[in-house]
């Protein structure tokens, strides 16, 4: 339809509607209905029919319900954009609010509330008030939601007219369950929004909503609610903390049959309640797992792939928390031919997670079948899964059999994955070298093309040169093809392997070493060049020195780094039955800032990420396009890794550092043999770090808070950057503090103060600024508080030229803030005095 | 924030339910149907949710508020001239204590039927072992009963059920205490319960595939037969062979039934139907591998289809249906059918 004919048609419609407006002749309703239908269709497909507004309103005087509905729909759609015209509708909507038919009353009230025009709010109050008192449940249902709509347009008018209080009364007393549900929904949203307006009242109101009488009245009639309202109620109940275990048991008894509901949403919501009620009762918690297993397992394999994935994600979370409880149910996680790849992948993770001594054989047999899968991605994942399981258990023969089977398949990607797997196995179980090497020996190096697999093979050749007679000759082949080797990772690996072989079998490899080093020195890749140069110079210092650095005795890796911190896992668990579980991320990581609420931290552009000591270590590239959030993140990550180094618990000397460092320094390429180099530098860094601290005399600090303070701090508070941001955004400033430092001159850089704070159990989250003004974010945690609460957050701004400092303190528990303030002041005053 | 965190399963399930309701109202769900029925859809959405919060999705309740715009009501509106897309009264169920059933329902003929529909999921692994076998079952009911009947159903062997879930109308206390289903049914068709039975030891039919490769040609032999007599004939047996990508061409024939290769999906379907008494069905033929390949490296998977009328393979049987609290006597019926669900055989 072109623009002209459309205009013509609209004019035509307009004329017809106008003609019908006052008409009372029989059959007019049917003609009107057809016209309205046309208008609605145009509106829906995006044609602007707002020019018909007055005609539509004129025709709205009708007793036909469908016509009315269409009219309401039209008005609701255009009122917002044409507030002046919307005024025309008020009259007939208000009249309809007093109709005899409850359905018309309800619909009119809903339309009235949905106009969303600020100037018209005054016309809304009266009908809304009488709607809430209407004799018919349908009208009250609409009215309850109308209050929420009013709140969104005009919050103060909503609260001033006591609407929330009316909803609260209905919540407890209304005979219609849907009214109760809508009240609950509206109140929750209103109180959440009120937090920004009047935090104290909102907190009190929320508390009231979560109080025993409210929760009990909802629970007692849970079966009256629709399935969706049940989800809402259950979600709220999961936030309620019962006073004792008897109460928990009562609640679980009431809710037990919700686990048998056909609606998976209800089942999952109920499961969340059960998990939260029993979180502090270990044995009951376990029984809950047993109880909820059956419904979850049913949901996994019945229904759509999307449902399967969502439920599996939830199960995955539970399995990781209690793998043993699911060890007999592994067959539920077998992949089916028709499963989409994303489901299969998750199932493989599940199989890996539940594997233990009793079921490993079956699981690995099953996984081995997938290795022949047509879906290459899944075939690869299956082999990795076998690898992960192998790393958990000790049956060398069974595993080696599988490996041979994989290699016999003669498929490039299978061979590649297998090689990587063998390498990881050897890093954990060096004692298996004999069996594993026998397997690797059968691989023809020409079939290995993937860099990861090639690196693994080269590493094994260098590491186990004694067990493989022809290792030097295979490596020689690689060296000859140096130019053709595209991957820098492989070339790095080659350098290390050749050097290691040289220590073990010098006569056979000296020539090759020369070739490799000269090729490396000429290499265009900076890292390769540097490593070649390093080895060259080390060798100049003497073979023994070089061997101590390049090929120290290794300690087997006991645990490979876990990618997700337990705090994050706990947080995801708290958000059970939400997208967080499906994304495997806590909500603050994927929700928009607007949704999360304001975060003050981000307004400061001057914050630089700083670990406690290695401020220079941040790669420039990381700084370039990262937002403040990311900077904070990288700062805290680094802090952790540095903490691991400086703790010294895993690192007693330069050659013991092992592979664990592969999780640490961001600049490391962290390929297996390159770690020997990285290790030595990081270990050396660790030593020098210790020396440095000794020089400063920092180790002499007492690592405990002075006894005269009532508040004790936790020795190792742990708070990730995101959690810090979230808390900072949520909490109000409890106290502020002004102080003048006694020796401001001792602050050329932020580090001394950071160290001073750390020695007094106050950790740094981020610091930044330029002399003379520095800004710090500190945190500490009260001793004896659970892992996620009892935190104190401090923003400290220090002017080093005047010594003037100003602190803002926020606390999870505001009542502890004064004690903390006192303590913080004492710590701050002691800076520079000793 | 509250809303963003509202259960993900809830959102997914709700959207699914909306689609179900629309399908039922429009007799399908397609772009054209949606375009033709904007008004009905708007009306439905209005009653199903308000301000983003789900209200009722119970079809029986919705139908009392908004009549389906199907042929019957259109004809009706032409004949009587009355507006027929909407009933003039509010459904009593919106405020009834039995939200799934309106009061005052009347049928001239009172009847209730139950369908036991089971799907068998099984995986036979490469070595011919039953890696897993489970049955997912549903009891579908169609109720046309007047008044407020109270129905109870009992099973001979409820203990085999591994996990059950019920329609909201089922009283769970009754199930917990004596394993009986006791409920006031909604009017019309609904899913009364669904269940899972795990660790079945046997499947009704066997499939024995054999592959031998020689110089790029794979010889295939597949035998199919009845493994155990289930009391009723096994019908509609089909076998789908998923060819791996390394197979260039195939030439397969069978001594019974029809073989239909589909080159675009790489699926060859062998429809057997019922196993004949006099011979064992057998599929023979050769697969030509892509040049350069000596032998088959990915082994194909077979998907099996079958149907058994009159028997629930899980063994579940109902022994009694009682209808109480009504004056009339009603016709009661129970049927069972088992189909292959995800029944796969790896070779």
TrEMBL record, chain A:
Q: Which InterPro entries match?
A: AP_beta (IPR026739), AP_complex_bsu_1_2_4 (IPR016342), ARM-like (IPR011989), ARM-type_fold (IPR016024), B-adaptin_app_sub_C (IPR015151), Clathrin/coatomer_adapt-like_N (IPR002553), TBP_dom_sf (IPR012295)
Q: Does the keyword Heme apply?
A: no
Which stretches does the entry tag as region Disordered? 654-679
TM region(s), chain numbering: none
Compositionally biased region (Low complexity): 661-679
Q: Which domain of life is it from?
A: Eukaryota
One GO CC term of this entry?
clathrin adaptor complex
Domain Beta-adaptin appendage C-terminal subdomain as annotated: residue spans: 711-829
| Broad class of the protein's primary localization | membrane
Q: Name one Pfam family in it.
A: B2-adapt-app_C
Keyword annotations: Membrane, Protein transport, Transport
Subcellular compartments: Endomembrane system
Entry's Gene Ontology BP terms: intracellular protein transport; vesicle-mediated transport
GO molecular function list: clathrin binding
- What PANTHER family does this protein's entry cite? ADAPTOR COMPLEX SUBUNIT BETA FAMILY MEMBER
- Indicate the family of this protein: Belongs to the adaptor complexes large subunit family.
Description of how the protein assembles with itself and partners: Adaptor protein complexes are heterotetramers composed of two large adaptins (beta-type subunit and alpha-type or delta-type or epsilon-type or gamma-type subunit), a medium adaptin (mu-type subunit) and a small adaptin (sigma-type subunit).
Function, as annotated, reads: Subunit of clathrin-associated adaptor protein complex that plays a role in protein sorting in the late-Golgi/trans-Golgi network (TGN) and/or endosomes. The AP complexes mediate both the recruitment of clathrin to membranes and the recognition of sorting signals within the cytosolic tails of transmembrane cargo molecules.
The entry's protein name is: Beta-adaptin-like protein
Where is the organism placed in the taxonomic lineage, from the top?
Eukaryota, Viridiplantae, Streptophyta, Embryophyta, Bryophyta
UniProtKB/TrEMBL annotation, chain B:
List, alphabetically, the GO terms of the cellular component aspect: clathrin adaptor complex; endomembrane system
> What SUPFAM superfamilies does the entry give?
Second domain of Mu2 adaptin subunit (ap50) of ap2 adaptor (SSF49447), SNARE-like (SSF64356)
Can the keyword Membrane be found in this entry's annotation? Answer: yes
Cell compartment(s), UniProt: Endomembrane system
PROSITE patterns named in the record: CLAT_ADAPTOR_M_1, MHD
Q: Where would I find the MHD domain in this sequence?
A: 109-346
Give any single GO term for biological process. Answer: vesicle-mediated transport
Keywords from the UniProt entry = Membrane, Protein transport, Transport
- Does Phosphoprotein show up as a keyword for this record? no
What would be one Pfam family of this protein? Answer: Adap_comp_sub
| InterPro entries in UniProt | Adaptor_comp_med_subunit (IPR050431), AP2_Mu_C_sf (IPR036168), Clathrin_mu (IPR001392), Clathrin_mu_CS (IPR018240), Longin-like_dom_sf (IPR011012), MHD (IPR028565)
Q: Which family does it belong to?
A: Belongs to the adaptor complexes medium subunit family.
Q: What's the protein name?
A: MHD domain-containing protein
Q: Which organism is it from?
A: Ceratodon purpureus (Fire moss)
């Amino acid at each position: 339809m072109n623009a002209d004919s459309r205009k013509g048609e609209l004019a035509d419609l307009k004329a017809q509607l106008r003609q019908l407006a006052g008409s009372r002749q029989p059959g007019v309703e049917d003609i009107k209905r057809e016209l309205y239908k046309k208008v609605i269709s145009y509106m829906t497909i995006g044609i602007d029919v707002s020019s018909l507004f007055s005609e539509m309103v004129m025709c709205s005087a009708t007793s036909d319900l469908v016509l009315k509905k269409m009219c309401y729909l039209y008005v609701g759609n255009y009122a917002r954009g044409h507030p002046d015209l919307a005024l025309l509708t008020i009259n007939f909507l208000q009249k309809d609010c007093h109709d005899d038919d409850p359905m018309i009353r309800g619909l009119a009230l809903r339309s009235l509330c949905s106009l969303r025009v600020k100037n018209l709010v005054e016309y809304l109050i009266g009908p809304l008030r009488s709607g809430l008192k209407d004799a018919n449940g349908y009208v009250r249902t609409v009215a309850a939601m109308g209050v929420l709509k009013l709140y969104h347009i005009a919050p103060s008018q909503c609260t001033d007219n006591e609407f929330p209080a009316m909803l609260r009364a209905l919540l407890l007393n209304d005979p219609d369950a849907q009214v109760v549900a809508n009240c609950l929904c509206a109140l929750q949203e209103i109180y959440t929004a009120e937090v920004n307006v009047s935090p104290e009242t909102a907190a009190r109101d929320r508390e009231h909503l979560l109080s025993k009488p409210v929760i009990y009245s909802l629970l007692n009639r849970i079966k009256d609610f629709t399935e969706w309202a049940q989800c809402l109620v259950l979600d709220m109940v999961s936030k309620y903390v019962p006073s004792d275990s008897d109460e928990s048991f009562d609640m679980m008894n009431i809710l037990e049959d919700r686990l048998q509901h056909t609606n998976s949403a209800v089942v999952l919501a109920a499961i969340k309640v059960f998990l939260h009620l029993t979180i502090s009762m270990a044995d009951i918690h376990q029984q809950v797992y047993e109880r909820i297993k059956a419904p979850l397992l049913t949901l996994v394999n019945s229904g759509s792939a999307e449902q399967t994935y969502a439920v599996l994600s939830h199960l995955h979370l539970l399995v990781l928390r209690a793998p043993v409880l699911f060890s007999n149910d592994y067959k539920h996680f077998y992949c089916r031919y028709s499963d989409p790849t994303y489901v299969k992948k998750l199932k493989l993770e599940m199989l890996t997670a539940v594997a233990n001594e009793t079921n490993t054989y079956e699981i690995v047999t099953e996984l081995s079948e997938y290795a022949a899968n047509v879906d290459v991605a899944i075939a690869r994942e299956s082999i990795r899964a076998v690898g992960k399981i192998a790393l958990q258990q000790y049956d060398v023969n069974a595993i080696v059999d599988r490996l041979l089977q994989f290699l016999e398949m003669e498929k490039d990607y299978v061979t590649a994955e297998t090689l990587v797997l063998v390498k990881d196995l050897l890093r954990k179980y060096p004692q298996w070298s004999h069996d594993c090497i026998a397997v690797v020996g059968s691989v023809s190096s020409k079939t290995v093309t993937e860099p990861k697999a090639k690196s693994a093979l080269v590493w094994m050749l260098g590491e186990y040169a004694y067990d493989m007679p022809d290792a030097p000759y295979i490596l020689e082949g690689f060296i000859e093809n140096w130019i053709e080797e595209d991957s820098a990772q492989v070339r790095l690996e080659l350098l290390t392997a050749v050097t290691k072989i040289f220590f073990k079998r010098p006569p056979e490899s000296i020539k090759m070493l020369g070739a490799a080093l000269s090729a490396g020195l000429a290499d265009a890749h900076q890292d390769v060049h540097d490593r070649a140069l390093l080895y060259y110079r080390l060798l100049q210092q003497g073979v023994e020195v070089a061997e101590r650095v390049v090929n120290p005795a290794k300690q087997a890796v006991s645990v490979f780094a876990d990618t997700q911190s337990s705090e994050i896992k706990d947080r995801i668990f708290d958000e059970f039955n939400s997208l967080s579980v499906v994304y495997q991320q806590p909500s603050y990581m994927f929700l928009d800032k607007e949704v999360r609420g304001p975060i003050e931290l981000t307004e400061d552009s001057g914050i630089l990420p700083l670990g406690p000591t290695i401020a220079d270590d941040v790669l420039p590239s990381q700084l370039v396009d990262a937002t403040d959030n990311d900077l904070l993140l990288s700062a805290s990550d680094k802090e952790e890794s540095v903490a691991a180094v400086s703790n010294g618990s895993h690192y007693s000397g330069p050659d013991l550092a092992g592979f664990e460092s592969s999780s640490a320094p961001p600049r490391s390429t962290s390929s297996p043999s390159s770690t020997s180099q990285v290790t030595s530098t990081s270990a050396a860094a660790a030593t020098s770090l210790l020396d440095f601290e000794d020089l400063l005399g920092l180790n002499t600090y007492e690592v405990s808070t002075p006894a005269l303070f009532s508040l004790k701090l936790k020795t190792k508070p742990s708070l990730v950057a995101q959690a810090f941001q979230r808390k900072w955004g949520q909490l109000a400033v409890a106290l502020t503090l002004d102080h003048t430092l006694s020796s401001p001159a001792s602050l050329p850089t932020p580090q001394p103060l950071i160290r001073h704070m750390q020695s007094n159990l106050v950790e740094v989250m981020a610091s930044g600024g330029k002399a003379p003004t520095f800004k710090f974010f500190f945190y500490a945690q009260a001793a004896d508080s659970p892992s996620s609460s009892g935190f104190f957050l401090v923003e400290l701004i220090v002017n080093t030229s005047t010594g003037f400092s100003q602190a803002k303190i926020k606390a999870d528990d505001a009542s502890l803030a004064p004690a903390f303030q006192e303590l913080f002041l004492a710590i701050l005053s002691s800076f520079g005095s000793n | 924030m509250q809303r963003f965190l509202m259960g993900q399963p809830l959102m997914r399930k709700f959207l699914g339910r909306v689609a179900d309701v629309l399908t039922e109202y429009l007799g399908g769900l397609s772009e054209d149907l949606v375009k033709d029925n904007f008004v009905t859809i708007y009306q439905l959405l209005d009653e199903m949710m308000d301000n983003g919060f789900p209200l009722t999705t119970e079809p029986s309740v919705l139908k009392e508020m908004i009549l389906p715009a199907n042929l019957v009501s259109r004809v009706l509106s032409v004949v009587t001239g009355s507006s027929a897309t909407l009933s003039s009264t509010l459904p009593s169920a919106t405020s009834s204590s039995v939200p799934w059933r309106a009061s005052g329902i009347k049928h001239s003929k009172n009847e209730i039927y139950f369908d036991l529909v089971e799907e068998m999921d099984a995986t036979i692994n490469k070595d011919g072992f039953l890696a897993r076998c489970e049955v997912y079952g549903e009891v579908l009911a169609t109720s046309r009963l007047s008044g407020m009947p109270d129905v109870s159903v009992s099973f001979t062997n409820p203990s085999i059920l591994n996990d059950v879930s019920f329609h909201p109308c089922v009283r769970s206390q009754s199930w917990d205490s004596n394993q009986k289903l006791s409920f006031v049914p909604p009017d019309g068709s609904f899913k009364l319960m669904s269940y899972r039975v795990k660790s079945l030891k046997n499947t009704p039919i066997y499939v024995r595939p054999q592959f031998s490769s020689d110089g790029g040609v794979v010889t295939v032999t597949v035998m199919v037969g009845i493994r155990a007599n289930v009391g009723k004939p096994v019908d509609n047996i089909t076998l789908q062979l998923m060819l791996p990508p390394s197979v260039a061409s195939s030439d397969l024939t069978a001594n019974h039934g029809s073989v239909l290769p589909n080159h675009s999906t790489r699926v060859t379907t062998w429809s057997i139907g019922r196993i004949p008494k006099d011979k064992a069905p057998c599929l023979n033929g050769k697969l030509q591998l892509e040049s350069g390949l000596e032998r088959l490296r990915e082994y194909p998977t077979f998907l099996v289809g079958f149907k058994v009328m009159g028997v629930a393979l899980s063994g579940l049987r109902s022994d009694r249906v009682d209808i109480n609290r009504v004056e009339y006597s009603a016709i009661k019926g129970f049927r069972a059918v088992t189909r292959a669900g995800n029944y796969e055989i790896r070779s």
